[in-house]
Amino acid sequence: MLFEQDRDALAWYESQERVLNEKFLASIPWQEVSKTPLDPAFIPVLLYMRDVENFTSIYYDQLRRTPTGQDPVIRQFMDQWQHEETLHGDLLNRFLNEAGVPTSKQWQQEARANIPLRYRIKEPMISRLTRCVGKHFSAVHMTWGAINELSTLNGYQRLWELAKHPVLEYILRGIAREEAKHSFFYWSIARIKLLHSSFRQSMTRWIIKNFWSPVGQGAKRAADTNRVIAALFRGAEGVKFMEQRVNDQLERLPGLQGLKTVTERISKISLGY
């Protein structure tokens, strides 16, 4: 399914039934969580994912200050996107608590307080720079977002496959279905923005090749990001998984054929541990 206009992609997104609705939330068997031990190796992974989901409101505020965030179609999507992502973080935090991993009642504020100073300084500068090329930069934003949403979606799948915890799998499958909607919207808008502009293709290719970093890195420290990637995608099999599920989708976008950025970055981490 390919869309010709931005509003077609938005109409598709808004036509999709909300996955994490009241019925789903009420069906989560929280009382069963403690009956299956959680491998301690996945606690840092869940904490990282929880924090990154919570940071969505920060990304949302950053994007709203750019021409991308002022695009009416993208803005309408973002309003729902940030609400859904925040709920994902809350669900992961409750799962940790039910699994016997206590977290602070102020965990959101504490996670934000730990965002590196370098990120706090750099991000406003980047937002100002994007205004220099105006709406053309939306192609970069949407491509970057598509990579990160696809990475998140497949990270959740790897986690439930490796952790083998039935309640965690139930929750993550629901979250992943929402992430799949997000990733397809991002990818679709990126395709439309790139399709008829060689300038946007060249700019996007150069920026992704030289500056893309795995989802969460920046707001989280690189060592934490690397630890999560190594836990979920260690070895050649993990690299192949990301190449097929994420990098191949990146290369389907106009002008980005042969761009192996995701595979190369994941390989350095996964094969180096």
How would you portray this structure in words?
The chain has 273 residues and is an all-alpha fold. It has a single domain, classed as Ribonucleotide Reductase, subunit A. Helices cover 73% and strands 0% of the residues. It contains 14 helices and no strands. α6 (72-98) runs antiparallel to α10 and α13 (235-251) packs antiparallel against α14.
Going by CATH, the homologous superfamily would be Ribonucleotide Reductase, subunit A
CATH topology: Ribonucleotide Reductase, subunit A
The total count of helices amounts to: 14
- Domains counted in the coordinates: how many? 1
Give the CATH architecture: Orthogonal Bundle
Sheet/helix structural class: mainly alpha
Radius of gyration from the alpha-carbon trace, in angstroms: 18 Å
Share of helical residues: over 70%
Q: Termini separation (Å)?
A: 39 Å
> How would you sum up the global shape?
globular
Unreliable residue runs: none
Strand tally, please? 0
The ordered H/E elements are: HHHHHHHHHHHHHH
**What percent strand?**
under 5%
In the CATH hierarchy, what is the class? Mainly Alpha
Task: Profile the largest sheet.
Answer: none
- Average pLDDT, rounded to a whole number, is 94
Features:
single chain; 273 residues; mainly alpha; 14 helices
Summary, kept brief:
This protein has helices at residues 6-15, 22-27, 43-54, 56-64, 67-70, 72-98, 107-113, 117-130, 138-163, 166-195, 198-211, 222-233, 235-251, 261-270. The protein is mostly helical and 273 residues long. It has a single domain (38-270), classed as Orthogonal Bundle (Ribonucleotide Reductase, subunit A), CATH 1.10.620.
